[in-house]
Write a structure and sequence with these properties.
Length: 839
């Protein structure tokens, strides 16, 4: 049979221009404290002198032999905000560590306790001869002192104390000084810094723990700019460790140990010993299941198993002795296990790889005392699978092992080292890796309460770590399974989710707020819960999915699975399906297509009429396999893959021409870029009927995370905007790019007429918080036709504060779909004509 599939269209960025972000309202810099400059200088110089005296008076044996530097805390004055970029100095080897989120204290890592660079700033600040005076046109006179932004907001300066580097929870709980606790400590090092710094910190921490009488096996996690350890100490010992080393940047109470996985009982079925599974082709994509291993001899799986490995020597074998990983594998390989069993054969379209993370909940690597290893184990599990199959291959990694963040001390969403590990794995040094993470299940102790107030009470069950990772594809659960078996055993039972298409009673939900991306990203089938009297039943066959079981050698090759584990396994199957049809797509594109294809069901819209609640419970909705992987006669989907630099250097004419003919007429300037895609919407689509149309746009990229305190900062972010239906191309460009706005005779930019984009479902503020940003608009064809510009612009992050990283770029994917009569043929010809011409 001929292939009638219409492949995705491939577009290119139309133009690139120099960019400057418009300044929004309320962007007034914080007012500088009113103070006597000379008195302020004297006070701070006395504090700097005190630092010098403290260091000189310190006994030679008080610190580790490798401890040569100092951690200095610059604390803000009341109601003032420090300017961190004005306080470090690369020439003096005074490094900016970061800003403590709750206190505003700036931490510096300095080579010399004299802090000569700050002394010079203090002298300049107090020097009246260096005061600049400006007179505005209205006669207002303003003065500015040298280094005012750096010095005026400073309240005090001193060697960092435990309070200065403590996280919010440690300060709030303040455990007794003599009670051992697990602490998470961040130290100098990281993969973006010198290996010598990391090795130095490892040596200091290990040696001083031994000296304190608290030796322990140290498993560390390497972030971009910090090395993290979990240590069990008393608060007093922690402070002694800080004093004896020079490498500790931050300390916080460690999260609680991993909660047990809630798994379903197995279900017997027919013998499948003669099942015929044909292998995929050698270059086919793979799904990598990071779980309890896999039953390598299972007749429904073995021919498709490419590799089976473990996360490390702590785990003796890749064989699944618990069952969860084998169940995940069955749903990741098959769209419908039951149908395959009935046929007695199947053609595998992709490979399976298993990397065993744990043996069983609460045992071995999953035991309470090994919680700190989970970020490292996850990294090792990923790399173990890749090393076992060195062939370049499209891989979808799926992780359904999660931990609730509603147990003390974590209460609600927070970045953790585990979520940072997932973000780093997805970033993959800029090359990208598709990490699919289940949102996590509602706590089983809450099932009865949730059943009484489903679905609204589901909003009280929050996603688990590491599903809050911005770069992850986070998958929650909905269900279309609402029918109980026609059996007397279920005569008194009822289902919790009564409407097909509503959210599953197992799913957990995100937190919609200014700092968190939309999570979950999508919801996929995850089954339903039955209640019999006062007993919940999660094993009802009609409310669960058939899948493979690790008990196949005992005559039970088939089992049941549901919950967000099922949903995430199905998401991995979808990703592999997309790659099997479109193998050249990047990982961020596949993630973008899955989110792009999602829609809310009628039940979701009815249950959650408020947009914030709906996004929190359902994300962008249920993905469509067809929309995620192909076009149709009434749907044109265009994929644009490109990259965005954080900054570039350009030669520009000097504002004032030089007087000498031999002097260079240009100067080097740091510039940002905006990338524009012109969406072809030919006038031929107009008709007297003026049909209804839909427009979808999704931007997907992976950014480099950098965790400091309980916040994660991104290396570089992006966001998109689009020319509106009543907006000219010039007006749109002026709206999004300040450099393109007209200027007056005095050179100042003039105010422009207010214009706007389409009336989007989600809106730019909500969608721009994450690394996958999707939106939809519905209206008439007449409002859409005529080529429209889509802009992708940079949003600066921590890369911009690091000279070595300032010029890096990140890859991004833009996905655009237009739904309407005859749009595919009309748009396809325009897109292909553009591609034929070199841009």
């Amino acid at each position: 049979m001929a292939d009638t599939r219409l492949p995705l269209l491939r577009g290119r960025i139309t133009s690139v221009d120099t960019y400057e972000a418009p300044q929004g309202g309320g962007g007034v810099p914080p007012a500088m404290p009113s103070l006597d400059p000379k008195a302020h200088r004297t006070t701070l110089l006395q504090q700097l002198d005190a630092i010098t005296q403290q260091v000189k008076a310190r006994a030679e044996i008080a610190r580790d032999e490798l401890a040569k530097r100092e951690i200095v805390a610059v604390r803000p004055a009341p109601n003032a905000q420090l300017a961190p970029d004005q306080l470090d100095d690369s020439r003096a080897d005074a490094r900016l560590v970061g800003v403590m989120p709750d206190s505003g204290t700036v931490l510096l890592d300095v080579a010399n306790a004299d802090l000569e660079h700050l002394r010079k700033k203090l002298d300049a600040f107090a020097d009246d001869a260096k005061v600049k005076t400006r007179t505005a046109k209205d006669g207002t006179v303003t003065t500015q002192r040298s280094n005012e932004r750096a010095i005026a907001p400073v309240g005090s300066i001193g060697l960092a104390e435990l309070e200065d580097i403590s996280g919010a929870q440690l300060r709030a709980e303040a455990p007794p000084a003599d009670r051992p606790c697990w602490f998470e400590i961040g130290c100098r090092g990281g993969y973006r810094n010198r290996a010598e710094d990391t090795d130095n910190s490892r040596a200091q921490i290990a040696r001083q723990l031994h000296r304190l009488g608290a030796p322990q096996k140290l498993d560390d996690f390497l972030g971009p700019e910090q090395l993290y350890f979990f240590v069990r100490l008393t608060r007093a010992q922690l402070d002694e460790l800080r004093k004896a080393t020079d490498c500790i940047y931050e300390v916080e109470l460690a999260p609680q140990p991993l909660r047990d996985l809630k798994l379903l009982d197995d279900l017997s079925t027919k013998d499948v010993a003669d099942f015929a599974l044909r292998q995929p082709h050698e270059n086919a994509p793979s799904v990598v299941v990071l779980d309890t291993g896999i039953a390598t001899g299972h007749p429904l799986l073995k021919s498709a198993i490419l590799t089976a490995t473990t996360a490390g020597p702590e785990i003796p074998s890749p064989e699944d002795t618990y069952g969860h990983g084998t169940k995940m594998a069955g749903l990741a390989l098959y769209r419908d296990v039951g149908a395959a069993v009935e046929r007695g054969s199947a053609d595998a379209t992709h490979w399976l790889q298993s990397s065993r993370l744990l043996i069983a909940p609460g045992y071995g690597t999953a035991a309470d005392e090994n919680y700190e290893k989970w970020p490292v184990l996850t990294e090792r599990a990923v790399r173990s699978a890749e090393n076992a199959d060195p062939r370049p291959r499209n891989r979808a990694f799926v992780l359904a092992v999660t931990r609730s963040m509603q147990d003390p001390p974590l209460d609600g969403l927070a970045p953790t080292l585990w979520s940072q590990a997932v973000d780093q794995l997805a970033f993959r040094g800029g090359y990208g890796r598709l990490m699919i993470v289940s949102a996590g299940n509602a706590r089983d102790a809450q099932w009865l309460a949730l059943a009484e107030q489903h679905p609204q009470l589901q909003l009280s069950e929050k996603i688990h770590q590491p599903a809050q990772a911005s770069n992850a594809l986070t998958v929650g659960a909905f269900t279309a399974r609402v029918e109980l078996p026609n059996d007397k055993d279920y005569a008194e039972a009822r289902v919790v989710a009564t409407k097909p298409g509503g959210i599953s009673p197992y799913t957990s939900t995100g937190l919609v707020g200014n700092e968190w991306p939309i999570k979950p990203d999508v919801v996929i089938e995850g089954g339903n819960l039955a209640i019999s009297g006062t007993l919940p039943d999660s094993t009802v066959p009609t409310l669960s999915a058939l899948t493979t079981s690790h008990r196949h050698t005992h005559g039970r090759p088939i089992g049941l699975m549901s919950m967000t584990s099922e949903a995430s396994a199905r998401a991995a199957h979808l990703a592999a399906h997309i790659w099997s049809l479109e193998p050249k797509l990047r990982p961020e594109t596949v993630r973008g297509l899955i989110v792009h294809s999602a829609s809310w069901t009628k039940a979701m819209v009815g249950d959650f009429p408020g947009l914030n609640d709906r996004l929190q419970a359902c994300g962008y909705g249920v993905p469509s396999e067809r929309l995620a992987s192909e076009c149709a006669q009434g749907v044109a989907t265009i994929v644009v893959e490109d990259s965005m630099p954080n900054a570039v250097i350009e030669e520009e004419p000097k504002k004032t021409p030089p007087k000498r003919a031999t002097t260079k007429t240009t100067e080097r300037r740091v510039r940002r870029k905006v990338k524009l895609y012109r969406l072809p919407l030919p006038e031929s689509l107009l008709s007297d009927a003026d049909p209804d149309v839909e427009l979808r746009i999704t931007l997907s990229y992976f950014t480099e995370p950098n965790k400091f305190g309980r916040r994660t900062y991104n290396g570089l972010d992006l966001k998109w905007d689009m020319q509106g239906p009543q907006e000219s191309a010039d007006a749109f460009i002026q709206r999004i790019n300040a450099l393109k706005r007209p200027t007056g005779a005095d050179g100042k930019r003039l105010k422009i007429e207010k214009t706007k984009s389409f009336d989007w479902d989600v809106g730019i503020e909500r969608r721009s918080r994450g690394t996958v940003q999707s939106d939809r608009w519905r209206g008439k064809m007449s409002a859409l036709v005529g080529d429209k510009l889509i802009a992708i612009v940079p949003v600066l992050g921590w890369w911009d504060q690091r000279k070595a990283l300032k010029w890096q770029d990140i890859k991004f994917s833009l996905v655009v779909s237009v739904f309407g009569p005859d749009v595919y043929a009309a748009i396809k010809s325009k897109v292909e004509a553009t591609i034929a011409v070199e841009v």
